[in-house]
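Milestone 3.1: sequence recovery, worked example.
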């Protein structure tokens, strides 16, 4: 038996590494097990998010956005330059440097906080035991009073489109294209599909997005979703709803995709195909049989509201448990669990978790949308405001989009906020804070906002809830 710990965390992604750091800060002897190995054969922390997910995709989204700005919009604001060209090799180099800085930062934080980093694959073999298989195949068993499973998730693969080298890929492969595909197919019009489709569309690809559902972004308020679809179509993304992929065939350096829609059977040929139909929990083999940790039919670990499994002392967080598969949700669960293990009272407000799609403009939301609230029988009142009427958005040459607030008609409490705009991912924090503190629309309406700022659109949307918007004509007057 190797060292004994107060806490062992399996997985060093956004949930795991945060849980480990927090536990160590609270005086608990903590270790974190990670199996991820980079191209150089070195164990790296950060999980999917930092290595092949949130961070690298945002690096490419930002560089591709800057390219489009320089190519299409600099002249509009008085900056003349020769026609810019994308340098994909340099973009990938920048992306990799961003990854390196982030994962290196986590390793430094582990050292600063006294977290023991263990390289290898962790497996819970008992209520207080974790077996780690090293990269050399050797096995070591560690004992811990508490175990936190933060094993994350992996992309879902579907039978009609088996992965094939660098032609049919998941989101991971889509971050490694060494040249701009001429014709790019994307299966799935969710967060990942729209983001990756946007990257390569901006750089010159003809992008077709095949979405099996008939509704575009059903989790987003219908008004915001409609505006988003219009803006993405204007940018060149061909989003086909109700398109169910039935098969594919790789022919040389191309892939023929077959799908069916309202008009019958269709087929289209692409140079590259990205499969973005969701993610599944990575829980197979993480817990030995007989330990008692329960899984549901989809592979998620059963936990209560505070991430306790059915086995005392074993917790699970992040993508391998219920709830949205979001890095920040995993991180907050990690903090909550560490606090509970240390004997503190802690809970998490699952009604106030923001979501963001980093297209351009960005789409962000928190809480319920209007259709969800009405489906629950809640009488609502709403307020919307277009960024085309916001002075700072006009000065930024970014007038696209809108902000919408959904409030309870009886109590005025904010139930949800939905935004499509430049920097919507930053602006949505106002909605998160408001909901966390149980604010009313009037609370935001009575708040003094800096001028000029894009945040004023949130202020005006709050005013519009009761028909008091200043910088647009209200739909109806209220007292």
């Amino acid at each position: 038996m190797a060292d004994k710990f107060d806490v062992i965390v399996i997985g060093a992604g956004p949930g795991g590494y945060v849980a480990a750091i927090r536990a160590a800060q609270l005086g608990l002897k903590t270790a974190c097990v990670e199996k991820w190995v980079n191209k150089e054969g070195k164990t790296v922390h950060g999980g999917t998010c930092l290595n092949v997910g949130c961070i690298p995709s945002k690096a490419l989204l930002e560089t591709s956005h800057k390219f489009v700005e320089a190519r299409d919009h600099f002249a509009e604001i008085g900056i003349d330059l020769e026609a810019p060209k994308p340098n994909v090799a340099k973009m990938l180099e920048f992306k990799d440097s961003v990854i390196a800085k982030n994962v290196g930062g986590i390793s430094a934080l582990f050292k600063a906080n006294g977290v023991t980093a263990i390289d290898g694959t962790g497996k819970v073999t008992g209520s207080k035991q974790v077996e780690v298989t090293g990269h050399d195949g050797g096995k070591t068993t560690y004992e811990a009073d508490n175990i936190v499973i933060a094993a994350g998730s992996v992309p879902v693969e579907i039978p009609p489109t088996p992965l094939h080298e660098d032609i049919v890929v998941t989101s991971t492969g889509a971050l490694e294209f060494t040249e701009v595909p001429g014709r790019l197919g994307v299966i799935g019009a969710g967060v990942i599909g729209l983001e990756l489709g946007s990257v390569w569309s901006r750089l010159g690809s003809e992008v077709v997005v095949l979405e099996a559902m008939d509704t575009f972004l059903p989790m987003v308020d219908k008004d915001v979703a409609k505006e988003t679809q219009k803006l993405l179509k204007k940018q060149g993304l061909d989003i086909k709803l109700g398109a169910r992929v039935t098969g594919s065939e790789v022919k040389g350096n191309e892939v023929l995709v077959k799908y069916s829609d309202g008009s019958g059977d269709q087929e289209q040929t692409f140079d590259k195909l990205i499969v973005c139909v969701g993610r599944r929990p990575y829980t197979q083999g993480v817990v030995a049989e007989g330990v008692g940790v329960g899984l549901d039919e989809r592979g998620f670990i059963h936990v209560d509201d505070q991430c306790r499994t059915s086995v005392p002392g074993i917790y699970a967080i992040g993508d391998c448990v219920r709830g949205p598969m979001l890095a920040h949700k995993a991180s907050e669960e990690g903090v909550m669990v560490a606090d509970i293990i240390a004997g503190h009272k802690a809970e998490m407000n699952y009604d106030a978790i923001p979501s963001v799609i980093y297209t351009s403009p960005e789409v962000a939301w928190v809480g319920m949308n209007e259709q969800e609230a009405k489906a629950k029988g809640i009488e609502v009142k709403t307020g919307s405001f277009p960024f085309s009427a916001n002075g700072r958005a006009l000065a930024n040459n970014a007038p696209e989009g809108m902000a919408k607030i959904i409030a309870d008609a009886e109590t005025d409490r904010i139930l949800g906020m939905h935004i499509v705009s430049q920097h919507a991912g930053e602006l949505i924090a106002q909605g998160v804070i408001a909901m966390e503190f149980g604010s009313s629309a009037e609370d935001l309406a009575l708040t003094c906002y800096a001028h000029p700022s894009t945040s004023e659109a949130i202020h005006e949307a709050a005013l519009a809830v009761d028909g008091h918007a200043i910088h647009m004509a209200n739909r109806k007057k209220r007292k």
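The chain has a mean pLDDT of 97. Residues 262 and 362 are 30 Å apart (CA to CA).
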